[in-house]
Amino acid sequence: MVDMRGISVEFPGVKALSEVDFRLFPGEVHALMGENGAGKSTLIKALTGVYRTSAGTIRLNGRPVAFTGPGQAQQAGVSTVYQEVNLCSNLTVAENILLGREPRRFGAIDGRATRAAAAKLLDRIGLDIDPASQLGSHPIAVQQLVAIARALAVQARVLVLDEPTSSLDSDEVAELFRILRVLREEGVAILFVSHFIDQVYEIADRMTVLRNGRLVGEHLTRELDRLDLVSAMLGRELSTLEEVQRRTSHHAPGTEPVLQARGLGRAGAIAPFDLDIHAGEVVGLAGLLGSGRTELARLLFGADRPDTGTLTIGGKPARARGPRSMISHGVAFCSEDRKGEGVIADLSVRDNLVLAMQAARGWARPVPRRLAEDLVAEYIEKLDIRPADPGAVIGNLSGGNQQKVLLARWLVTRPRLLILDEPTRGIDVGAKAQIQKVVADLAAEGMAVVFISAELEEVVRVSDRVVVLRDRRKVAELAGHDVSVSDVMSAIAAQSGPVAAVAS
Amino acid sequence: MTVLAPSRPSGRLLPGRLPQRFLPVIATFAVFVITFGVGSFRYEGFFSGQVVANLFVDNAFLIVLAVGMTFVILTGGIDLSVGAVAALSTMIAAATLEAGWPPWLAVLTVLASGSTLGLLMGLVIHYFGVQPFIVTLAGMFLARGLCFLISVESVSIQDPVFRDLATSTISLPGDIVVTWSVVIALLTVAVAVYVLHLTRFGRTVYAVGGSESSARLMGLATSRAKVGVYMVSGFCSALGGLLFSLYMLSGYGLHAVGMELDVIAAVVIGGTVLAGGFGYVAGSVAGVLVLGTVQTLISFEGTLSSWWTKIVIGVLLLAFIMLQRLIVRQPSAAR
Predict the structure, then answer these.
(1) Which CATH number fits the domain B20-37+47-325, given the four candidates 1.10.3470, 1.10.4030, 1.10.10, 3.30.160?
(2) Which positions, given as ranges, span the membrane (chain B) (predicted)?
(3) pLDDT tens-digit series, residues A457-488
(4) Which of A443, B2, B145, B274 is deepest in the core (most CB within 10 A)?
């Protein structure tokens, strides 16, 4: 159905794709696999007409096509759901689903018919929300499903899903897969991109692996086992990953805690909690979506004001007056919202990296160019940021590499306490392992780290101590090397029903 | 998908409760009613249909300009040229009529030149990626300068058709008299509401204001919308200029100085968010009415200098922008 041959895409200074072939047949789910920066999103955007190709041909049903915009691609039956929810939160759910193809009566948009058509589509994917409600009033996961409903609204023959599951929990993923199977039966060709290897094996019939903008291979899912897939994606062995697993704790007990929270809480965000964090210790925060992980971290960083309790940093009481005062106390916070609260997309990697350092030094002492260059070069190497070009505009980097730059931004300020909120979400296995390794190394050097992740295995592997949250309340604190995922799961699930709801 | 039910904030609105997005518009109407109420309470003869009608008569041109500005601000842009384009329109109308052109041709020329100017600004803004603030600032200087190229003096309008149109009135029940300008302004409002809410162009305007990149990825005609709103604004400026020339019966390069700021104030007081995406034409009309009422109040008072109008407008503007911040912030904080 889709046949792409010798596709190359270039950005100023970056060759994002070179001579990639890709085929997609009707009635199949085809997974596109690769690390961050491998060119998955670029290939999709080349197909849907967002980017121009500099070489190669794209054929749809045997006819050569060259879409100049997503509108054209949609008319040709190629519909896309992007990783970040690309809808307009100021409009209603119904409008978002049917924007650009609203039913019309006498030349005017028929509001009632729009809502009815939207309700039908929402019903088809089993989403029970009011089509007339404003999109922004719904959580991200619901918005993602609305985006899928939108993609279904056109009679799509090719459905492209770019990381549709990164903000969904396991039940929602199951629901999405049910819909995908129905569509596959109907003969729709589905291109599916995900970092969750389990999901790919569950749903995909075939997969194409990319690495560094080049095609590595195309395989039937049942003929490629997981280990081969991962090494094809990484082009190397999983040594870094194992290194983290074998790491022994460097926690030196008895030292004064870097941060001490007593009865800290904020109404509606998180119930009062006590928490000690020591130097050289990684404290993991585990819990389900909406259990108060981010809220707790924001209190520690002073991004939100606590209603009750006290916060002591390095033995001295600290009144959380906002991020600036906490930064001066040596606390750094890496937000989960990379796009909204992290990178400044139009600036270069270098500028993004020195931002926090500049803020710490004050306006009167600019960061010398040479120092900035040295630091950037150091961290690009240390964190394996690709492309290794300090002048590259950060918006052109892949998600995982943007995350690494954010991490580096805080590391250059040499904080005493580093709070990482979902640093590995939506990034691939290799970058994940690298970030985990960096966290372990930092702790070994004496930095205190708070590590938040929705993936329990990761939290357990990285952390010396796991704080478990449930329903906006701290419910348990598990210490020691023998904490296992099932311990954490039972702490989460205690008195709250079956464990099955836990996303792994 | 029942699993979503607990985590979902009440998206379904309670019956009888108005959506939050109408709140700023309602607030503006409330302010209008309150200021008008204060006037009725303090001054004899204030509470009459004719005072209300006069609000429309005296501000017809402002309503038309505010309609155009609403389109632009909804996309997240700004148009600083509206006052100057309105002045240029009065000038072109007066000069062409003086030269003996038939009135219909003069009107067409004015509307065409205003729309063209808007179109050009829109094209520059969109295709060269220049800030709307700068482009329309340039357009403002250009239009203002062109006025004086035509004449440095005020040119009075002697054309009988124009004079008839300006002076003839329509009687409404209850001894209320309005001018044709009011009819034209209200028609403009009606057309604008239709376009914004019932056409794809209008919905695209809102989508662009919400998130331009999303709108583009959804396959909407974003460039057409972005350029189009400046053309609409240019057209409305020209039409507003024509109404102003009826009001003043002259064309002059110093007409409507600073009016772009009054218009922006009216639109913002009317609840349209400067960042784009939220707002209604009805709100902008209410905003103009609030400004007009404040002006009327101060003229009824008699002893107060007209500069008090500016002070009150400043306070109102500040209050409304703060109200908007509260409303825009709430949904994101509840996340």
Answers:
(1) 1.10.3470
(2) 22-43, 55-74, 104-128, 134-155, 176-196, 227-249, 261-287, 307-328
(3) 788 888 888 888 877 788 888 887 677 777 77
(4) A443
